[in-house]
Amino acid sequence: MQITFRDKTYETKPNITARDAIKKIGMEPEAVLVVVNGKLVTDDVVLREGDQVKLVAVVSGG
Amino acid sequence: MRCKKCNTNAVINMRHHKLALCGEHYGEWFLAQTDRAIEKYKMFSRDERVLVAVSGGKDSLSLWDALLRLGYQADGLYIGLGINDPAPYSDVSLDKTRAFLESVIASREAAKQSPTSDAEIASQTPLAMTFTPTLHVVDVQETYGKTIPQIAQEKNRGHGKPCSSCGLTKRYVMNRLALEKGYTVLATGHNLDDEAAVLFQNTLRWQTQYLARQSPTLPASHEGLVKKVKPFVRFYERETATYALVRELDYVYDECPHAVGNLTNFYKTLLNQLEANSPGAKLSFYLEFLRARGEGVFDGFNQQDQLHACEVCGQPTTAPGRCAFCRMWDVSAIVQ
Ligand code: SF4
Ligand SMILES: [Zn+2]
Ligand SMILES: [Zn+2]
């Protein structure tokens, strides 16, 4: 399953929570929002094979 | 995670508040909290004209959006810094800020045509319906002859980041424009993560003078200084970002290229690691500081510097002769 963040793509196993996936790819759960299939979700959502997962950095602009 | 109010899917879980909300209820909560902070820290009233410093980023556009929806008379100020290398950061920021304003005006016009079509706007105060926000744009290069990277290059002799020149210029232009246009208060989009990072930095170095002055509301302590407020100080950065996404605000996603790797972002990361293991740590770090400050812990450190008018521009300054801004820009006559 693929997770995109900015212009990078990460590969993780499906059927884990978004929070665990974020930690697995070495990012800080507090620092990103999770959008699955175009919808903003909480990070306890379990990611499934085929989901389009995008992480949005919370730090930006000013 | 389900919304506490309506049990549909939540878009945010705020562990520090033990509160999960759906998009609709989050938007309502966010506005109510903004209004509470404005009242609690005695920021401004609906009779005052507020100038919002907008950069095109999520915090400042969310702030302008929230203030307008709450029925405040909020205009915007965009400062063109001329940071367009390697990416056209400043140009894109101005475009997004203008597009935001156009969409606000269009939706207000539409609401006037058919007042019941937009229940949200119709439910607002009559003032919110009739007030048409404007955007002031000050382009630094047009006004003072150089872009921020150019002046910084000159002043730093090519070393280091342009941030100190940039910060000085922004503070000066904001204050001056607010006064000239008759605004009583200047609002910025600083969130709790911004404030906690600054607090952390000041605490690490025991900068007691800075600690004494760090506040959600800085009164106009001297003639020629406008009151400064930060209505978002109680929101985590992920909360302002969530509001921007829920409201579908088209903000500048990429940071200023000079912000990459700066100390503030490093402290934000540290504090987020702490937060992940101890939900609410950032909130209590900041709010307990405000409590201690309110109790007068730092009062003895709040030195009131002797201010006098800059001999060129008339703005208050501690420096003898020309103020720091006029010295940096080598202004020797009044520029309008
Ligand atoms: S990161 Fe530095 S140069 Fe960029 S806008 Fe902020 S202060 Fe200015
Ligand atoms: Zn709800
Ligand atoms: Zn001056």
Write a structural description:
The complex is a heterodimer of chains A (62) and B (336). With 62 residues, chain A is mainly beta. Chain A contains 1 helix and 7 strands; from the N terminus they run βββαββββ. Chain A is globular and about 30 Å long. Chain B is α/β, with parallel strands linked by helices. Chain B contains 14 helices and 10 strands. In chain B, strands 5-4-3-6-8-7 form a 6-stranded mixed beta sheet, sandwiched between helices. A two-stranded antiparallel sheet of chain B has the order 1-2. In chain B, helix 7 (148-156) crosses helix 8. The longest helix of chain B is centred in the N-terminal third of the chain and has 25 residues, at 89-113. At the A-B interface, strand 5 of A face helix 2, helix 11 and helix 12 of B. The complex binds iron/sulfur cluster and zinc ion (2 copies).
Main traits of this protein?
heterodimer; A: 62 residues; mainly beta; Ubiquitin-like (UB roll); five-stranded mixed beta sheet; globular; B: 336 residues; Rossmann fold; six-stranded mixed beta sheet; 14 helices; binds iron/sulfur cluster; binds zinc ion
Which helices and strands appear, and what pairs or packs with what?
The complex is a heterodimer of chains A (62) and B (336).
Chain A: E1 2-5, E2 8-11, E3 16-17, H1 18-24, E4 32-36, E5 39-41, E6 46-47, E7 53-57
Parallel strand pairs in A: 1-7
Antiparallel strand pairs in A: 1-2, 3-6, 4-5, 4-7
Chain B: E1 12-14, E2 19-21, H1 23-40, E3 49-53, H2 58-69, E4 73-80, H3 89-113, H4 119-122, H5 126-130, E5 135-139, H6 140-144, H7 148-156, H8 163-180, E6 185-187, H9 192-204, H10 208-213, E7 217-218, E8 227-229, H11 237-246, H12 263-277, H13 281-294, E9 308-309, E10 316-317, H14 324-328
Parallel strand pairs in B: 3-4, 3-6, 4-5, 6-8
Antiparallel strand pairs in B: 1-2, 7-8, 9-10
The complex binds iron/sulfur cluster and zinc ion (ZN) (2 copies).
